[in-house]
From TrEMBL:
This is Polysaccharide biosynthesis enzyme WcbI domain-containing protein. It comes from Gordonia alkanivorans NBRC 16433. InterPro entries: WcbI (IPR041307). It comes from the Bacteria. Residues 34-236 form the Polysaccharide biosynthesis enzyme WcbI domain.
């Protein structure tokens, strides 16, 4: 029996079906296109924005920038050139050797409005958590595990092999200082690069702020989405029924 063309399409291509041209655009939806651009946070934000009941634009699911390859560039150009709104994180020009930076997209779509939103990174809940990448591949997914704990790294350097010797006793005030520092650093990046901010919400959200240092919780995404939607003249987003970036979670310690 001959395998159909649909069966030959892999799951990832089908997931981004409209972007890759294996799924047709909705025929009964004549709204102009809004593209949400960035890392893994971008798809979560797209879901939030598209939940607005009167959003005057339709969104298209696109791969995160760190997954794009040279074969995708023609599709990036086609999609971007047809966009009316580009909602992008600050992505540097020529990122990974491709024309997929924020300014690159603005050049491809000179008539589109561009709204820049922050790469959300918050260490207030996880002051020991880091992402360790090789200097030669700063955009690559880290080997073995996506995150490392500085306490573990220090224990290895010191030659410790007992779990009860790995922890570091830090006063609560120092943890609060670290959280404020993390917010301040994000605020600096927002002022430098962004049209909308989110840093002012993080401290008040407590444990709901993030699942990991770079996976914000739904309440953060809803607050950010609400601000972007307000600038577009659209109603507030509808809270999703699942944690959009909750597939990876770091444990929280009581304190």
């Amino acid at each position: 029996m001959r395998t159909s063309d649909e069966e030959l399409v892999d799951g990832r291509t089908r997931h981004y079906g409209e972007f890759y041209g294996v799924v047709e655009a909705p025929r009964n939806d004549d709204r102009k296109i809004l593209v949400v651009w960035g890392n893994c946070q971008a798809e979560a934000l797209r879901i939030v924005l598209s939940s607005s009941p009167d959003l005057p634009f339709r969104t298209v699911r696109v791969p995160p920038v760190h997954e794009l390859e040279s074969a995708d560039m023609a599709r990036v150009e086609d999609l971007t050139s047809s966009a009316a709104i580009i909602v992008s994180q600050p992505v540097r020009t020529g990122y990974r050797g491709f024309p997929i930076g924020t300014s690159d997209l603005a050049d491809l779509a000179p008539s589109a409005s561009v709204i820049v939103w922050p790469v959300i990174r918050y260490g207030g809940l996880f002051p020991f958590q880091v992402i360790a990448r090789h200097p030669a591949q700063p955009s690559a997914v880290p080997a073995a595990v996506p995150y490392h704990d500085l306490r573990t790294a220090l224990a290895v350097v010191a030659g410790r092999d007992r779990f009860d010797e790995w922890d570091v006793d830090i006063a609560a005030e120092r943890i609060r200082e670290a959280a404020q520092w993390s917010v301040d650093q994000l605020a600096v990046r927002e002022r430098r690069h962004c049209d909308v901010r989110i840093s002012d919400t993080l401290l008040d959200l407590g444990a709901d702020a993030a699942h990991t240092i770079n996976h914000p919780g739904n309440r953060v995404l809803l607050a950010l989405g609400g601000r972007i939607l307000d600038s577009l003249g659209a109603s507030a987003p509808v809270p999703p029924s699942r944690d959009l970036l909750g597939n990876i979670r770091a444990p929280l310690e009581d304190g």
